[in-house]
Design a protein that fits this description.
- The protein contains five helices and seven strands.
- It is an alpha+beta fold and 205 residues long.
- α3 crosses α5 (158-177) and α4 packs antiparallel against α5 (158-177).
- The two termini are 15 Å apart.
Length: 205
């Protein structure tokens, strides 16, 4: 795993590459989870592996994404305080309500860490996308191919890279969430049959 670098303006640079799936990523997550869990020993939480590195076989940026899932809003503040005391740098919600983001300690492998409330929109977006891609390797392969095509944008325009993935991610989440009365997935093109569907916030990976 690569380390994140800290620029002179205190902005953290993350690797601007998409690489083939690394079987070592789950082990990197477990090491980070142990460190996070130690920092949050006094805060009720579960640490989950999310993002593309959590999907076996999926090409991804070599950056582990973790969700620290707390049971309610009252636990968010204590979690932020404990993580900050342990070396993570709080970044606020970065424009996505319900998700508190952190940059890693200087001696940690590069990762994104988010504090989310269980069942909140950001939590569901991360978990639903991960679980859908794990269950549908063909769709995960399509997503990996798209990320490879967009990878050239990472160094110059990360917003364009994220925007380029948004439509496919939204389609995956529609298929994961939109069900007929018989319990069958509705095709993404039939999303109009599901009134009230909440479209996703940007997902990691």
């Amino acid at each position: 795993m690569l380390a994140c670098s800290l620029r002179h303006d205190r902005v953290v640079d993350v690797p601007a590459v998409v690489v083939a799936y690394d079987p070592g990523w789950p082990g990197s997550f477990r090491e980070l989870r142990d460190r996070v869990d130690a920092a949050l020993a006094e805060v009720a939480h579960v640490t989950e592996h999310v993002g593309s590195t959590a999907v076996p076989g999926l090409d991804a940026k070599p950056v582990i994404d973790l969700d620290v899932v707390v049971p309610g809003d009252a636990a968010v503040g204590p979690a932020i305080g404990a993580l900050a005391a342990a070396g993570w740098r709080h970044q606020g919600d970065l424009g996505i309500a319900g998700r508190e983001a952190f940059w890693p300690p200087a001696d940690a492998v590069c990762h994104h860490l988010y504090v989310v409330v269980a069942g909140s929109q950001p939590h569901r977006d991360h978990v639903d996308l991960r679980d859908f891609l794990r269950a549908h390797p063909g769709q995960a392969a399509r997503y990996g191919e798209l990320k490879r095509r967009l990878a050239g944008l990472l160094a110059a325009d990360r917003v364009a890279y994220s925007d380029g993935k948004a439509e496919m991610i939204a389609g995956f989440l529609r298929q994961a969430r939109c069900r007929t009365g018989l319990g069958e997935c509705v095709a993404a093109s039939a999303v109009v049959a599901c009134p009230g569907l909440v479209l996703p916030s940007p997902a990691p990976g």
